[in-house]
């Protein structure tokens, strides 16, 4: 994946930094475009996975919509070329200012997570003389069998409205004069590699459609959210997720009525594999049983391992050694959780070696902080 020529270009660049393979991003977007066009599905890129403006502009050029979870994401998406008529806005805790900003831009849809939130949107919409389009984000009570930190569809998760309350909530919403209910929304979790949770989600969606019909409602929009996972273990063998297989499964299992439109919100699957964090080895040292490789990137640059125990493939780009050793790869931050991997087998590693943390394009740069007053790492884009 990283040619000698490319690695030589990294030599003068201060580390750590984020490397983006824009050719891979475009191939991913081409594949996604084709897969969604097959069934006329609508894709809204989940901005929270990576909101670097260069990435956002590349994605918006494909004509996709944006899925936002804060007012600033709504504003950034629009600034980077996403059409407000394709912007959706989810989140359990939308502030009045965020709602007003979204109303001012006439976004396509608020994905709403409580009755109280909808009442507030109604009030704010009436104050500015607008009708807000909303979808109910239902919590479908489905276990996506993913990391518990990123499982969002379980019945007692904080997200969404319990699906058992649909009738009641619909009745409360229908009386609000500045709200137009246009659909139902779901998002069951992240890094989902198994199709079964999506089959269950389709079943739940079909059931909810039947309930709506009993209420005499036929809502035009069905939004199934995001969550499709990527191959963190073999990023070179599987650089592009199998979008088509997932969408085929949806097509086979989802009831779509005449005139209804189906929406998705992929984040990770779009951007994870095009990004790599490149760091440099500062020191190595041995403890009684452990050999440490101490790199110049910390969890402030890539927090997934510390936050969720996530795996990133690690490669020593400099070592020419045939011999290998087992390392705990750690960062410089003064916290014991600043560990990227434990017991990781790598070629013999020395001070100065460049170390690649693969599949870091999603939930990497965007989650960076200045903890320990460290500088924010820069991004570089290669074709
Ligand atoms: C995070 C999120 C997504 C995207 O999730 P991925 O796993 O990155 O695809 C989609 N929709 C909502 C509402 C989200 O919160």
Give a quick set of tags describing it.
2 domains, 8-stranded parallel beta barrel, alpha/beta, Lyase, Ornithine Decarboxylase, Chain A, domain 1, 8-stranded mixed beta sheet, elongated, 17 strands
End-to-end CA span: 13 Å
CATH topology description of the largest domain? TIM Barrel
Share of residues in helices: 25-40%
- What are the low-pLDDT stretches, counting only 5+ consecutive residues below 50? none
The CATH level-2 architecture of the largest domain is identified as Alpha-Beta Barrel
Total E-strand runs: 17
Q: For the residues shown, what is the average pLDDT?
A: 96
Radius of gyration (Å): 22 Å
Q: How many strands, which pairing sense, and closed or not: the largest β-sheet? A: 8 strands, mixed
Bound small-molecule species: pyridoxal-5'-phosphate
Number of domains: 2
* Shape descriptor: elongated
CATH class of the largest domain: Alpha Beta
Order of helices and strands: HEHEHEHEHEHEEHEHEHEHEEHEEEEE
Task: Furnish the topology, listing elements before pairings.
Layout: H1 4-10, E1 17-21, H2 22-39, E2 42-46, H3 53-60, E3 65-68, H4 71-79, E4 87-89, H5 96-104, E5 109-112, H6 115-127, E6 132-139, E7 161-162, H7 166-174, E8 179-185, H8 196-214, E9 221-223, H9 243-253, E10 261-264, H10 268-271, E11 275-286, E12 291-295, H11 304-308, E13 314-316, E14 324-330, E15 339-347, E16 354-357, E17 378-382
Parallel strand pairs: 1-17, 2-3, 2-10, 3-4, 4-5, 5-6, 6-7, 6-8, 8-9, 9-10, 12-14
Antiparallel strand pairs: 1-11, 11-12, 11-16, 13-16, 14-15
The chain binds pyridoxal-5'-phosphate.
């Amino acid at each position: 994946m990283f040619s000698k020529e490319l690695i030589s270009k990294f030599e003068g660049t201060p580390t750590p930094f984020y490397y983006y393979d824009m050719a891979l991003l475009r191939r991913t977007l081409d594949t996604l475009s084709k897969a969604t066009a097959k069934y006329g599905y609508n894709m809204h890129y989940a901005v929270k996975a990576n909101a670097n403006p260069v990435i956002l502009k590349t994605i918006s050029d494909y004509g996709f919509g944006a899925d936002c979870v804060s007012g600033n994401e709504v504003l950034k998406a629009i600034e980077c070329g996403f059409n407000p008529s394709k912007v959706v806005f989810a989140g359990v805790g939308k502030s009045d200012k965020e709602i007003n900003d979204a109303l001012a831009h006439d976004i396509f849809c608020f994905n709403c997570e409580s009755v109280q939130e909808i009442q507030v949107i109604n009030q704010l919409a009436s104050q500015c003389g607008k009708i807000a389009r909303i979808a109910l984000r239902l919590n479908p009570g489905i276990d996506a069998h993913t990391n518990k930190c990123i499982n969002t569809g379980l019945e007692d998760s904080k997200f969404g409205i319990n699906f058992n309350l649909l009738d009641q909530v619909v009745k409360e919403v229908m009386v609000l004069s500045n709200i137009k209910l246009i659909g139902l929304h779901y998002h069951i979790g992240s890094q989902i590699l198994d199709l079964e949770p999506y089959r269950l989600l389709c079943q739940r969606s079909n059931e909810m459609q039947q309930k709506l019909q009993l209420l005499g409602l036929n809502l035009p929009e069905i939004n199934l959210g995001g969550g499709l996972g990527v191959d963190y273990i073999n990023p070179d063998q599987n650089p592009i997720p199998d979008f088509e297989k997932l969408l085929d499964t949806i097509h086979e299992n989802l009831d779509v009525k005449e005139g209804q439109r189906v929406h998705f919100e992929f984040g990770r699957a779009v951007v994870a594999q095009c990004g790599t964090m490149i760091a440099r080895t500062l020191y190595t040292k041995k403890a009684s049983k452990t050999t440490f490789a101490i790199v110049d990137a910390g969890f402030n640059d890539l927090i997934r391992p510390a936050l969720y125990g996530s795996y990133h493939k690690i490669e020593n780009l400099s070592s020419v050694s045939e011999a290998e050793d087992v390392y705990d790869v750690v960062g410089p931050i003064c916290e014991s959780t600043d560990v990227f991997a434990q017991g990781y087998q790598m070629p013999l590693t020395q001070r100065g070696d460049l170390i690649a943390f693969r599949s870091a394009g999603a939930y990497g740069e965007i989650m960076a902080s200045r903890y320990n007053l460290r500088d924010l790492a820069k991004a570089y884009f290669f074709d």
